[in-house]
Amino acid sequence: MKYRQVHLDFHTSEKIEGIGEKFSKAQFQKALQKGCVDSITLFSKCHHGWAYHPSKANEIHPNLDFDLLGEQIEAAHELGVKTPVYLSAGFDEKIARRHPEWIVRMKDDSMLWTKSFLEPGYHKLCINTPYLDYLLEQIKEVCENYEADGIFLDIIGVQPCYCKHCRETMEQEGMDPFKGEEVIALAERVYANYAMRVRETIDRVKPGLPVFHNGGHIRRGRRDLASMNSHLELESLPTGGWGYDHFPLSAAYARTLGVEYLSMTGKFHQSWGEFGGFKHPNALRYEASLSVANGAGVSIGDQLHPSGEMDMATYALIGKAYEELSLEEPWLLGAENIADIGVLSAEAVLEKSSGFIDKIALEEAAKLADIGAARILLEGHYLFNVIDDEEDFSRYSLMILPDIIFLDEELKNKLGQYVEQGGKLLSTGSSGLDRDKTEFQLNFGIRYLGENKFRPDYFRPGFTIQDLETSAFVMYSQGYEIETVSGKELGSRENPYFNRTATSFCSHLHSPSRNEKDGPGMVSGKDGIYISWEVFRDYATTGSLILKRMVQYALDQLLKDKATIRTSLPAQGIVTLAKQKNRYVVHLLYGVPVKRGRNTEVIEDIQPLYEIEVQLNSREKIKRIYLAPEELDLNYTQEKGIVGFKVPKLALHQMIVAEY
């Protein structure tokens, strides 16, 4: 897989004249070279529905008079640059207008994305209609006529639909359109059929050609969906609504699936389709570094001007990130990220929830639980993967069950085997309870009593909190009443005077603690540690310091000397560790996103850090430690398996290599 890719959008209206009239092979090649690009995804068909080459399966853009795709592929291949080809699968606006009966319909007959034809925007098409055959012919044509290095299909996934064709299918098969679970079951079958037919279509022409189906999110717990792709592209534009938290979480799951994967960011200040939008070079450098530190290649989104002329300012910007990356590749190729902790994804486990209604009700809570867990682990500089229940638990010294992991018999037994083999658990909120939420299925030395009727309530730790002195700390999330049976209490729960109502309220937010112990709030038992609040969801929404410190204390108690790496980086810094043949590669990153405008996070200034301490727990005898790609040797010590060294300076991203 290539590390320095560009995704070249070309969604171009038929109302624009002179399509491709300024395309020049020399200028196109100059841009690729300036950007240090080694792969570029080029367009066969855009969201408007037009082809950018002569076509019998589609219609060439009415204002294009030559084979733009063919000339782009030829120009790129002359430089040794790969050229996957893009086809919009979910959007084809010309077809949506000609065949409105093929458009995805919601239960109330409304349309997705754009609600009417009097608004600007696209209308999603259903693949349980004749549109699928139309799309497959386009894919076949590209494979037959062009030296594509892969196929990228966009705006596609499992999509519940109530269009005429889907309603007819449900009626023919005796399904009930009023039952949401049956509508989703049909959507699953429709998507699986689509993916199978795409693969068959490609393989009849070019067996094994890579294909990726982009739905904007790789759903945790759906290995079956992920396996329909040759590789994964994790769409995650930090300024486009995803934020800087999203990619590390997605990558932490993707790297457990055994396939190659890319991050997909953009050169834009905001998001796709932003002509004239540029982020600061330091932001793009940081995003590229964050990607490779998490085991991914990089794809940067751009949009070609209708004239076909590449914007050289864009490729100068991309080149500032990719020139650095090109020097780092020897320490990236074949590297495998190391993790001490496995976060059992709430989103993944929710896929096996006992009921459809449970999934709908808990979906947002599950996402927040995963986000909060990943955020705390990143800020605490722990090495982790986000996993599903198919993962080999024995790979991890410690596992986290965030907030809403209910256990069926199979998961209970697998976790039981894990702890019997020496693994430890951190469980929070209702995690560890049976599906009916009546009793714990794991041994934390506690008994479940029920949800606390007071919210918020308070936690008073029985241990020293870093940065703070002991007090009653407010807990905004739902708390759970427990009693100790054999566990060791690490902190207590305190209730407020009353809940805030119209007839009983105090001050601006909530009433204070009564300063009386009302039960345990955090307990250590045989299988690990239990915290009786949904601390990860709470951290994702409030970011309260005490939540992070509670979790970090528990992790440190459970990991003890099994932590593979520790560092003096501040909370905003990120550390990852990878292994190549006969060497470890440490990645240190430090960039501070700030809000500009209402919801846009940007990185502009790079604040250098100095004399960063790192301790690496290594069984191997280390022979040399140096900075990469500079190959500047560092002094180090190794005593009782702990390798200690200092990084003299970190300015955005630094790799440190420990050879053995």
UniProtKB/TrEMBL annotation:
It comes from the Bacteria. The lineage of its organism: Bacteria, Bacillati, Bacillota, Clostridia, Lachnospirales. GO terms for biological process: carbohydrate metabolic process. Signal peptide: none annotated. This is Uncharacterized protein. One of its GO terms (molecular function) is beta-galactosidase activity.
